Amino acid sequence: MFVRRLATLWRLGQAFVHESHHVDDGAAMTRVARFFATHGARAAPLAAGVPALSQLSRVLENASGALARHPVLAETAVRVALDEMDGLFTPYDAPRFRAACAAALPATPAFELTHLSDVPLRSGVAEQTHTARIGEMPVRVTLLRADARAELEDDLDLAFAAASFAERRSAKARDMHPSQWVRRARESVDAMIDLRQRAADQSYLRFRLRDDARLAVPEVLWDYCNDAVLTTRAIRTVALSDADALASCGIEQAGVIATLIEAFFEMALGVGVYHAGLDAAGARISIEPATRGQIVLEADNPLMIFAAHEREFMVGVSHALLQGDHKAAARMHLEHGRPQTHATHHEVRVESTYRREAERFASAHARRSVGVAQLFGAIGKAPAEHMFSAAHGRIASRAMLLSRSAERIECMAQEIAPDIDVWKIARKVILRLAADQFSLRSLAAHFAHEATQWPHTLPRWPALIAKRAAASQRTRGTVFR
């Protein structure tokens, strides 16, 4: 087995080196994807079964388009590609699923699953979700497959070792940065299969949205959760796209779509959360009496929480673009990172980029030819092109993820309810959130938050002022030399 693995490592490393010399078009991620598509399946038999490597080719091919344009979008592109796969492994049937759950929760005698669904509701990268009952309570159980997780880790370790081997042997392979792409893929996989973190995020979301009558967040049953099992109360739902089922329950499809659009923008820009339950492809509507007509955000759906500064950036820049104020957008951009050299030159380029994008959204006439998805694309474009800090990279990645979801929502609205004005809803939400950012309540909250940092910040002010003055002197000397 060790000899086979060593042979696979050698073959993969040589293939990385070959691929780095084969094409010289500057699209690093496209070349990595092409490598996996060509060599991933061949490597599997040699390693006595390397399923992740053969499947990873599809992931990287799906992600290669975005990454060839903007390599900074690796996190989102790989995560989206993984989400769109049906699962890397064959799911368990009901008896094996029940046995695996019992083994994962041996110290929970009351964890007796009945009425277990024969097929999974959803299969992820290394987990599967079934409906069942615990006593009289309907539940939704997600199981992380131990064998799938071990194989994924083993295969990604092998891919990373091969990429590192190639970088040591070839300067062109180093320029291609294959180990970075494999590392990003691994980070995305680890985040997606962390069930305990997913349960914590679901509990936070349920608390955060407890007063929102549009959204239903199932309760996490912590007594039946651990690193391998996630259990929530089950809510009976129908797909948003199923007009007949909605009508039979007395729910108007067009009204729910309008609610979905508004909730999507408020969640992304107001709460700072992306949830796949608000994606047009996966949205489901409750048909239970207590929550009838509400959009259900299940725990087994992908979720991403944005940092406060990322959310504020997207709200501020989207508002500035709608108002045609490219200077305000550029100022917010530079607040999240400034160039170390040739500052004036870069600042002019940043302002020029936002000026070009603002012309597309500043008037109702200009907005007729573009969609809301393109607004999020514009928000992510400048941070991707003028990335002066890691924060810019993360903002660009988040914005492109929202752009993709907004595009799906617009297509669904156009197909099912063409009378709904997506721009009108989005603009109303953006203007309200921008006004809230500068309200007295918001300023007071910011002041209170900053005050907790003053004992650490105030003693550093003299050194920071001196450093800033020295940087200004160097910049002035560079500009006028």
TrEMBL record:
Organism (species): Caballeronia insecticola
Source superkingdom: Bacteria
Pfam families: ABC1
Family note: Belongs to the protein kinase superfamily. ADCK protein kinase family.
InterPro entries (UniProt xref): ABC1_dom, UbiB_kinase
Keywords: Plasmid
Protein name in UniProt: ABC-1 domain-containing protein
Domain ABC1 atypical kinase-like as annotated: residue spans: 105-331
Keyword DNA damage annotated: no
The keyword Cell membrane appears for this protein: no
